[in-house]
User: Fold this.
Amino acid sequence: MNFVLDVHIHTVNSGHAYSTVTENAAHAAKIGMPFIGVSDHTPAMPGGAHIYNFSNLWSLPEIVCGVRVFKGAECNILNTDGEIDLPLDILERMEYVIASFHRGTFPPADRETHTRAAIAAMENNKRMHILGHPGDCFFEIDASAVVEAAARTHTIIEINNQSLNPDCYRFNGNDAVMEILKLCKKLNVPVIAASDAHFCTNVGNLSRAKELILAAEIPEELVLNTSVERFLAAVKRKNEM
Assistant:
């Protein structure tokens, strides 16, 4: 299973990441990854990028260091109504959008609350394409209900490589992520492995996510890292809902 794409990558604009777009693209070129996406943290995140960062992404060239750079964002799920923190006119200009729970923007609550918020975000935001790092130990969810909602709303489920790192604060994610993967396989929900890189040398580091995807025997056609065409088709399906 050959991965050609990593779309969860942060730059210095996220406030707590340490590399530029050019440095991230240069590392992708070095490791032979032809497609990456920039997805900085949106304004509600403490220290996150200003809204102007996202309205001005179109000043970036499509190709940097020989690598196609897609323009995206990692939004914050803000409440149980599923609101996220970029306005629709900017969301519509993004090539893709991830939305995730973060402790700085959604205080951890209980399983029912997290589940309701995740489902509402997928249902109420046509321009939210990817549910970021489900399986986070601080945001327990009803995996069955969330994956069923992803199937219904044509939302991609992210398998976050950094969350599987034993040194990450989102610890002990393997069992929760494996449950999610098995449900995605059962319900034919596409998944995407993501580095969640905050420094350039982690761009394209998808090894832990790939290991679980292979262990869960997810068909290659459901793994969007293997084909940029399938990734773009999945984004288009959500946009057309």
